[in-house]
Design goal:
Number of helices: 1
Distance between the termini: 30 Å
Strand content: over 45%
Number of strands: 6
CATH architecture: Beta Barrel
Oligomer: single chain
Shape: globular
Strand order of the largest sheet: 1-2-3-6-5-4
Structural class: mainly beta
Length: 88
Protein backbone atom coordinates (compact mmCIF):
# COMPACT_ATOMS: atom_id res chain seq x y z
CA UNK A 1 0.00 0.00 0.00
CA UNK A 2 1.38 3.42 -0.94
CA UNK A 3 1.79 6.15 1.66
CA UNK A 4 -1.15 8.04 0.15
CA UNK A 5 -3.36 4.95 0.22
CA UNK A 6 -2.43 4.33 3.87
CA UNK A 7 -3.27 7.94 4.70
CA UNK A 8 -6.66 7.63 3.00
CA UNK A 9 -7.38 4.41 4.90
CA UNK A 10 -6.74 6.09 8.27
CA UNK A 11 -10.18 6.83 9.83
CA UNK A 12 -8.73 9.76 11.80
CA UNK A 13 -7.63 11.62 8.64
CA UNK A 14 -9.56 13.08 5.73
CA UNK A 15 -13.23 13.08 5.06
CA UNK A 16 -15.90 12.63 2.45
CA UNK A 17 -16.08 14.71 -0.72
CA UNK A 18 -18.58 14.73 -3.57
CA UNK A 19 -16.89 14.28 -6.94
CA UNK A 20 -18.53 15.43 -10.19
CA UNK A 21 -16.89 14.73 -13.55
CA UNK A 22 -16.94 17.88 -15.67
CA UNK A 23 -18.43 19.71 -12.70
CA UNK A 24 -21.96 18.65 -13.62
CA UNK A 25 -21.78 14.87 -14.06
CA UNK A 26 -23.19 12.22 -11.72
CA UNK A 27 -22.12 12.62 -8.09
CA UNK A 28 -19.79 10.14 -6.43
CA UNK A 29 -18.96 10.25 -2.72
CA UNK A 30 -15.35 9.42 -1.95
CA UNK A 31 -12.72 9.74 0.72
CA UNK A 32 -10.17 12.53 0.40
CA UNK A 33 -7.41 14.07 2.47
CA UNK A 34 -6.51 17.74 2.05
CA UNK A 35 -2.78 18.31 1.61
CA UNK A 36 -0.72 21.45 2.03
CA UNK A 37 -0.78 23.43 -1.25
CA UNK A 38 2.42 24.67 -2.83
CA UNK A 39 2.89 28.34 -3.68
CA UNK A 40 0.29 29.41 -6.24
CA UNK A 41 -2.05 26.49 -5.53
CA UNK A 42 -5.40 26.97 -3.78
CA UNK A 43 -5.98 23.41 -2.62
CA UNK A 44 -4.52 19.95 -2.99
CA UNK A 45 -6.42 16.74 -2.38
CA UNK A 46 -5.36 13.13 -2.21
CA UNK A 47 -8.13 10.81 -3.42
CA UNK A 48 -8.43 7.04 -3.65
CA UNK A 49 -7.77 5.85 -7.20
CA UNK A 50 -9.91 2.74 -6.76
CA UNK A 51 -12.92 5.03 -6.41
CA UNK A 52 -12.32 7.03 -9.58
CA UNK A 53 -11.04 5.70 -12.89
CA UNK A 54 -9.89 9.17 -14.01
CA UNK A 55 -9.75 12.72 -12.69
CA UNK A 56 -9.28 15.52 -15.23
CA UNK A 57 -9.19 19.32 -15.36
CA UNK A 58 -12.66 20.79 -14.95
CA UNK A 59 -13.95 18.06 -12.63
CA UNK A 60 -15.11 19.28 -9.21
CA UNK A 61 -14.98 18.20 -5.59
CA UNK A 62 -17.36 19.57 -2.96
CA UNK A 63 -16.09 19.41 0.60
CA UNK A 64 -18.08 20.94 3.46
CA UNK A 65 -19.98 23.26 1.11
CA UNK A 66 -16.80 24.45 -0.67
CA UNK A 67 -16.51 23.62 -4.39
CA UNK A 68 -13.00 22.99 -5.70
CA UNK A 69 -12.33 22.77 -9.45
CA UNK A 70 -9.59 20.44 -10.65
CA UNK A 71 -6.65 22.11 -12.40
CA UNK A 72 -4.50 18.98 -12.70
CA UNK A 73 -4.39 15.43 -11.35
CA UNK A 74 -1.67 12.79 -11.24
CA UNK A 75 -1.82 9.23 -9.98
CA UNK A 76 0.92 7.81 -7.78
CA UNK A 77 3.39 5.22 -9.07
CA UNK A 78 1.42 2.37 -7.49
CA UNK A 79 -1.83 3.57 -9.08
CA UNK A 80 -3.61 3.59 -5.71
CA UNK A 81 -4.14 7.32 -5.13
CA UNK A 82 -4.36 10.66 -6.91
CA UNK A 83 -2.76 14.04 -6.12
CA UNK A 84 -5.26 16.63 -7.29
CA UNK A 85 -4.48 20.37 -7.58
CA UNK A 86 -7.63 22.49 -7.38
CA UNK A 87 -8.77 26.09 -7.41
CA UNK A 88 -11.61 27.58 -5.41
Amino acid sequence: MSGAAALLANPDRGGTATFRPGGTGPQTALRVVRAEPAEGEDAVLVAAAVTLPAITAGDTFEIGGEVLTVLSADTDAAGTAWRVVCTR
